[in-house]
Design goal:
Length: 197
Amino acid sequence: KIFFFYSVFSGISFGFIINYFTAAPFIIQNTYHIKPLHTGLYLLFMPVSLIVGAFVAKYLAQCKMKAANLVTIYAISFLVVSLVSLILSYFIQSIALLVIMIVIIGFLCGLIMPVLTGESVSTIDASIGTAMASSIQVMIKMLMTAACMMIGLTIHVKTTTDLLLIFIILSVMLNTLLLFMSLMKKVDKENITVTLK
């Protein structure tokens, strides 16, 4: 269960990145009238913030922070960042808002991706093997990314606000998945208690 949960969570998280790289060039060029050559420079903010997030994740792993806590913090942070950015985007249509939002979202994705990958593969039985587990996780991640892209395609993205609507839908999916997983854990604990009695 945990392997599947973390794999789906990772796939949805990757959906944020893919939706950004798909929609951002159109927003940057059409809304903010920036030349295609310079658009690539704005796109670099995402991978740089992903790398910084990954280094912070390495530091947090050394501090022995639980993966479940990181996942919860990540899901709630993503929803808050998306909602605040959406509200601001109704008043401010600025490239600066897009860049700030993407740096924060990229950082969060960089923070959680290594944790999700490590935790999901570590839950697999040794008889299956980590190579098989990694292959299954990649398949689940790609399926979830495709589903996230389908959501992105239903909204015709012209502005930062449109992109943020996609991010809010994905954030709600993450938080719903997190809630579902916590309810499943609670039911499992109750079943174990009933069985022991």
